[in-house]
Amino acid sequence: MTRLERNPPATGCRNAPILKERGQHEVFCGLTGIIWLHRKMQDAFFLVVGSRTCAHLLQSAAGVMIFAEPRFGTAILEETDLAGLADAQEELEREVDRLLARRSDIRQLFLVGSCPSEVIKLDLARAAERLSARHAPHVRVLNYSGSGIETTFTEGEDACLASMVPALPETAERQLLLVGALPDVVEDQALDLLQKLGIENVAVLPARRADKGLAIGPNTVFALTQPFLGGTHAALERRGARHVPAPFPFGEEGTTAWLAAVAREFGVDRARFDAVTSAPRARARRAIRKAAEALHGKSVFFFPDSQLEIPLARFLTRECGMEAIEIGAPYIHKGLVGPDLDLLAPGPTLAEGQDVERQLDRCRAESPDLTVCGLGLANPLEAEGLATKWAIELVFTPVHFYEQAGDLAGLFSRPLRRRTALHLGTG
Ligand code: SF4
After folding, report:
1. Where is the Nitrogenase/oxidoreductase component domain positioned along the sequence (predicted)?
2. How many angstroms does the Cα of residue 163 sit away from the middle of ligand 1?
3. Pocket test for ligand 1, best of 54, 111, 118 (most atoms within 8 A of CB)
4. 149, 334, 362, 384 - which has most CB atoms within 10 Å?
5. Residue having the nearest C-alpha atom to atom 8 of ligand 1
6. What is the 3-state secondary structure (H, E, C) of 133-152?
7. What are the mean pLDDT values of the chain's consecutive 10-residue runs (427 residues total)?
8. Which CATH class is domain 30-151?
């Protein structure tokens, strides 16, 4: 079905050796996901059960919300809670009752665990169960962990979506489920393409509102839009849904291959596929060509951060003319990123997990033109003369599907252009 402009490599990287690193992850915790999830799920509230540090992280990452009643907050665990002197469970339930009495717009409430709530072993699952029973059917209360002990920043979304799956009603209907929180405008573009392909029954997890009637069952097939949803993938399979493996929809090639996998599943014929995709494909190619001029022949090094690294390396090497030196990812789940690995030519070091000192040594030795890394590493590396791209921006910015393909290339070329401009200015 797919007519890829570039041939896949004779052997991809699916079976390439993976360097396993076993140090601590130097990334944000899973609470960060609340920043994009609370915008997406319009009747949800995220109640972090944590410390003042957790509250500060959320406030500084999200900015202060002025225009609307916020859809997230922190139930602060005080020293008496941490010392086991107060019944934190009871207090939490009282807090939730108060919140729900005041906010009738809340239909889904997530109790989000943190490092402190884990340390004192607060049973959020039991609290969610009791509160759900008390506030059903108007509000569904769920829980997941966003703690830095258990999760890296994109795993917060995974844990959140996975927590929703067991509570979804059963359906026997044949349907496609898109899985992953995309900005509304990007989600609408994807739904429009699928509808033009004639795929009618399409649902999205997470739905924008709880009353969207989302259900799941053995005739549900699902396509992931984010490569960090391993837990959600497993939860959906436990409910009998079937995954449609595909490269992730980054860039023209990734988007076409992703759509082609879905189209094959639903028996869309070649002529229709080409008719629907040819114009946006051509637009995407043009946009990438322009935005990627500064990337041709340049090298890139990925520190493990967002789990987007493998699909992005595929995009940068195959569509933007870059050379990948090292592709680090917190976890490499071949059931998810296998199709991207198939398209990735052998050569780069694949590394799973983090040992930051060793990775820094390798990065310095290679002196790549561009280093994709977390905020904490970016400043020191910039000071050493390396151009960097913050991995977290790739999660906050609309980068999926055809219409964003040029912007995605632009995100990587900007630091290189800026560096050239600075050098010209000082030269
Ligand atoms: Fe820090 Fe842990 Fe709270 Fe995240 S959950 S802000 S890592 S204390």
Report:
1. 29-386
2. 20
3. 54
4. 362
5. 115
6. HHHCCCCEEEEEECCCCCCC
7. 64 93 85 91 93 86 58 78 71 91 94 92 92 93 93 93 96 97 96 97 94 90 98 98 98 98 97 98 97 96 96 98 97 97 96 94 96 92 94 91 97 89 63
8. alpha beta
